[in-house]
Amino acid sequence: MVEVRMLRWPSEAPALEHCRARGVPRLLMVEGPVSPPTCVDALEDWVRLPVDRADLQARRAMLLARVGSTTPSVDADGILRVDGRYLALPPAEAPMARALAAAYRRLVHRQELIDLAWPGTGLPSRNALDLRVLRLRRRIAPLGLIIRTVWGKGHLMDADGGDAPEMAA
């Protein structure tokens, strides 16, 4: 279950950066006369304190709705869906895409992707996974999705333009 993180601005600025880097939906509660920060993506909004409870719940509900529309998913038929758009994936790529979408913006280890792409067949060559990820990258790009490489560890699916400073694309 996805939750919206409520943060006080500016006193919880370090926590805000942490949430942004991990794609956590967040509602900033702006304290006093300070200017609110610039919202960097659709998973962020702000209200000025004091705030009416109904307004707070409405903003929270709106953020949760955005999460549902922006998080990709792959169904049993190998259809990748995101933002009301869809793409049919080949059977060789669907299991990997399903794992990457389920762990959206989180790392999926190389070995897990290998096990999904080549179940029970032994190890492929070192470049086989890289080639399959490259093909999947090209296929999902029109949907505004990318696959980032976390060198030596694995891959993660993200929105094109998503912020992940510690990772190389």
Question: Layout of SSEs?
Answer:
Blueprint (H helix, E strand, L loop, with lengths): L4 E5 L3 H10 L3 E5 L13 E5 L4 H18 L2 E2 L4 E4 L2 E4 L5 H9 L5 E2 H8 L8 H15 L4 E6 L3 E6 L10
Parallel strand pairs: 1-2, 2-3
Antiparallel strand pairs: 4-5, 5-6, 7-9, 8-9
Explain how this protein is built.
This protein folds into two domains: 5-70, no CATH class; 74-159, Arc Repressor Mutant, subunit A (Orthogonal Bundle). 36% of the residues lie in helices and 23% in strands. It contains five helices and nine strands; from the N terminus they run βαββαβββαβααββ. Strands 1-2-3 form a three-stranded parallel beta sheet, with helices on both faces. Residues 162-169 have low confidence and may be disordered.
Key features of this structure:
3-stranded parallel β-sheet; 23% strand; 169 residues; 2 domains; Arc Repressor Mutant, subunit A; alpha/beta; 3-stranded antiparallel β-sheet; disordered C terminus; single chain
End-to-end C-alpha gap: 28 Å
**Which strand-content bin applies to the residues?**
15-25%
Supply Rg.
Answer: 18 Å
Major beta sheet summary? 3 strands, parallel
Supply the helix-strand structural class.
alpha/beta
Q: How many domains?
A: 2
- Assign an overall shape: elongated
CATH homologous superfamily assignment of the largest domain = Winged helix-like DNA-binding domain superfamily/Winged helix DNA-binding domain
Task: Write the element-wise H/E pattern from the N-terminal end onward.
Answer: EHEEHEEEHEHHEE
* Helix content class: 25-40%
Output mean pLDDT.
87
CATH topology of the largest domain: Arc Repressor Mutant, subunit A
Task: Output the number of helix runs.
Answer: 5
Number of distinct beta strands: 9
In the CATH hierarchy, what is the architecture of the largest domain at level 2? Orthogonal Bundle
User: Which spans have pLDDT < 50 for at least 5 consecutive residues?
Assistant: 162-169
The strands making up the biggest β-sheet line up spatially as: 1-2-3
CATH class designation of the largest domain: Mainly Alpha
